[in-house]
Design a protein that fits this description.
Layout (H helix, E strand, L loop, with lengths): L5 H7 L3 H20 L5 H7 L4 H4 L1 H21 L4 H21 L3 H22 L3 H4 L5 H30 L1 H22 L11 H7 L3 H21 L2 H8 L4 H28 L1 H21 L4 H16 L1 H12 L4 H30 L1 H20 L18
Helix pairs in contact: 2-7, 2-9, 2-10, 5-7, 5-18, 6-7, 6-10, 7-18, 9-10, 9-14, 9-17, 12-17, 12-18, 12-19, 14-15, 14-16, 14-17, 15-16, 15-17, 15-19, 17-18, 18-19
Protein name: Transporter
InterPro entries: MFS, MFS_dom, MFS_Efflux_Transporters, MFS_trans_sf
Organism: Stenotrophomonas humi
Length: 404
């Protein structure tokens, strides 16, 4: 696969960190939009004449479509400048939020959320490999942390702030606010993102070629195991804290905020470490996500124990996105968009599968079933990581740019 190097590097040298921050704000905007209905489901359902259960599709539909759209967007993009693709997707995100704010019924709302899924898959797939094109090689770890820091920050700041706006001014105001933010991020991209040309577009044949990459296969397996295991429990974190740990409702917000802060710390801690020692870093994440459910089962039955386990959980899971994306980048340094889109697809499949399986286990075995199966999945990920050979692309320069 051919690559472009000189043009993007020279263009990015003018405002590299502003460009990286703009990409991070794009991931923040799209993930906040994805998760915004979490705190607003009841009011949205009441306003649009739907049950709260049916309104849950506002979360699951974008996740499923993101899994499909990520590879389709990079294939459809062809050889277009990636800067233009990001601008187009941010423009669509603005429209999707505006359409959500104005939706007269649930059908219209679901159509708007489907558009969110398209934007999420495309933005995440393209953004994932941009760090190596925007900064020097020695700074790729930090830049990747900033880009994926948008995902962590969305869970800490984006969703709670959206919920506060919705409680104060109505859920439509929350989506209108996200439309405004998407527009501001688009303006920032217009000003600071350099040209990101590619030699030629991604084809289905390239996807099939990369599917034979053993390091990529291992990374996708790790993604599925770790993400599914996490969401198997995290989807039901409120009943876990309430019924299992005895945490009162008034402490839910502060504790989840603390979890999110720990997640941001884990993201920025893991980024530079994963850039230098990828397999050990992902191994450490796997150990953390294995210890988390085991500690819930043993020490998490008290209020103080729940605090410490929740902080460990946030720290460990905070490194998942940047750690695994770095694995993908090193496994396929000359096809980062292919790896990134596959990663986004499997990541969202893990979210959907983990949430569904967690709900089934909760109904049939209680919260202990979720915790034991989550531990088993983390153990499987740990063994897969230990058994992995040295990444095939780790000796290649991460500064090598994806052709598409």
């Amino acid at each position: 696969m051919s690559i472009q190097s000189s043009v993007p590097t020279e263009a990015a040298a003018r405002h590299p960190w502003l460009a990286v921050s703009a990409v991070g704000l794009a991931t923040f905007s799209v993930v906040t939009t994805e998760m915004l209905p979490v705190g607003l489901l009841t009011s949205i359902a009441a306003a649009l004449g739907s049950s709260t259960g049916d309104a849950g599709w506002l979360i699951s539909l974008p996740a499923m479509l993101a899994a499909v759209s990520a590879p389709l967007v990079v294939i459809a993009a062809g050889a277009l400048d990636r800067r233009l693709i990001l601008r187009a997707l941010l423009g669509l995100l603005l429209l999707a939020n505006l359409a959500s704010a104005l939706a007269p019924n649930m059908a219209a709302m679901l159509m708007a959320r489907a558009l969110v899924g398209l934007c999420m898959g495309g933005i995440w797939a393209i953004a994932g490999g941009l760090a190596a094109r925007l900064v020097s090689e020695c700074r790729v770890g930090l830049a990747t942390s900033i880009i994926f820091g948008g995902v962590a920050a969305a869970s800490v700041l984006g969703v709670p702030l959206g919920t506060l706006i919705g409680d104060a001014y109505g859920w439509r105001a929350a989506f209108a606010g996200m439309s405004l933010l998407s527009g501001l991020v688009l303006l920032l991209h217009l000003g600071v993102i350099p040209a990101l040309p590619v030699a030629r577009g991604v084809s289905m044949r390239m996807f099939l070629q990369q599917l034979g990459n053993r390091a990529l296969q291992r990374g996708l397996l790790l993604t599925l195991l770790l993400v599914a295991g996490h969401f198997m429990v995290f989807t039901f974190v409120r009943p876990l804290l309430d019924a299992w740990s005895g945490v009162g409702m008034r402490w839910m917000g502060p504790l989840l905020f603390a979890y999110g802060v720990a997640g941001i710390a884990g993201n920025f801690l893991m980024g530079p470490l994963a850039a230098r020692w990828t397999r050990p870093a992902v191994t450490a994440i796997s150990v953390g996500l294995l210890l988390t459910p085991l500690l819930w089962l043993s020490a998490g039955t008290t209020f103080c124990g729940a605090i410490w386990v929740l902080l460990l959980w946030g720290l460990a899971y905070g490194g998942v996105s940047v750690g695994l994306m770095t694995w993908m980048m090193k496994a396929t340094p000359r096809a980062m968009e292919v790896a990134g889109s596959l990663y986004v697809g499997v990541f969202n499949i893990g979210i959907a599968a983990g949430a569904w399986a967690g709900g089934w286990l909760l109904d049939h075995n209680g919260i202990t079933g979720n915790l034991w199966v989550a531990a088993a999945l983390a153990l499987a990920a740990l063994l897969a990581c230990i058994g992995a050979r040295t990444l095939s692309g780790s000796a290649e320069r991460l500064k090598a740019h994806p052709h598409g």
